[in-house]
């Protein structure tokens, strides 16, 4: 059965949903929280350090997060495959898409620290899914169709069934379509 993964990133973790079917008839196969960071706020940790150390800390955090995300996605694909599901696509919820400035400017601005961390974890999920050979559809969260989200929200799914899982489900179904 063709299946897609959907992700909604947070600082250091992501909500992951595996789904098959269509937006009109979805089948939720799995929901889990995956850890995608050793350091939940690497830009915050780097702020105030001498620039070479800050740059190395952020680079190491990205590498570590990529490895953790790839491992989690590969394990999920393997588990679903063993149950007869072909993971064919991936949907990742994205932020606003505004380009970030250079690292020096990010480290000098507390609001930009938060923005950069959000982008980092979304980028890590996209990178890891591609490493696992999944086609990836980036879905701007602000552009999710409200009617579709309401329909998904009304499904009688046991916990966890928060906004994270609902949005990730819509992204996965969009990628699957």
Give a short summary of the structure.
The chain is α/β, with parallel strands linked by helices and 177 residues long. It has six helices and five strands.
Task: Give an overview of the whole structure.
This protein is of the alpha/beta class and about 180 residues long. It has a single domain, classed as Nucleotidyltransferase, domain 5. The chain is about 50% helix and about 25% strand. The protein has six helices and five strands. Strands 3-2-1-4-5 form a five-stranded mixed sheet. A hairpin with a 3-residue loop joins strand 1 and strand 2. Helix 2 packs parallel to helix 4 and helix 5 (about 145-155) crosses helix 6 (about 165-175). It is globular and about 55 Å long. The two termini are about 15 Å apart. The model has no long low-confidence stretch (mean pLDDT about 95).
Topology:
Layout: E1 2-9, E2 13-21, E3 26-35, H1 42-46, H2 51-82, E4 86-94, H3 103-107, H4 110-131, E5 136-140, H5 146-153, H6 163-176
Parallel strand pairs: 1-4, 4-5
Antiparallel strand pairs: 1-2, 2-3
Using brief descriptors, characterize the structure shown.
single chain; 177 residues; Nucleotidyltransferase, domain 5; 5-stranded mixed sheet; 6 helices; 23% strand; globular
Helix segment count? 6
Morphology call:
globular
Mean pLDDT over all positions: 94
Number of strands: 5
Instruction: Provide the low-confidence segments as ranges.
Output: none
The CATH superfamily label reads: Ribonuclease H-like superfamily/Ribonuclease H
How are the strands of the largest sheet arranged? 3-2-1-4-5
* Helical percentage: 40-55%
> What count of structural domains?
1
- Radius of gyration over all CA atoms, rounded: 17 Å
The CATH C-level name is Alpha Beta
């Amino acid at each position: 059965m063709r299946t897609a993964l959907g992700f909604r990133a947070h600082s250091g973790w992501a909500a992951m949903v595996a789904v098959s079917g269509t937006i009109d008839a979805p089948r939720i196969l799995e929901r889990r929280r995956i850890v995608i960071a050793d350091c939940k706020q690497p830009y915050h940790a780097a702020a105030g350090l001498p620039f070479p150390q800050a740059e190395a800390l952020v680079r190491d955090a990205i590498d570590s997060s990529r490895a953790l995300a790839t491992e989690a996605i590969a394990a999920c694909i393997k588990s679903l495959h063993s149950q007869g599901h072909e993971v064919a696509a991936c949907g990742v919820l994205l932020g606003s898409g505004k380009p970030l400035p250079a690292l020096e400017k990010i480290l000098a601005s507390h609001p930009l620290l938060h923005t950069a961390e959000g982008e980092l974890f979304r980028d890590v999920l996209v990178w890891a899914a591609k490493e696992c050979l999944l086609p990836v559809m980036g879905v701007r969260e602000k552009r999710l169709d409200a009617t579709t989200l309401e329909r998904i929200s009304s499904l009688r799914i046991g916990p966890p069934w928060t906004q994270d899982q609902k949005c990730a489900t819509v992204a996965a179904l969009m990628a699957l379509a």
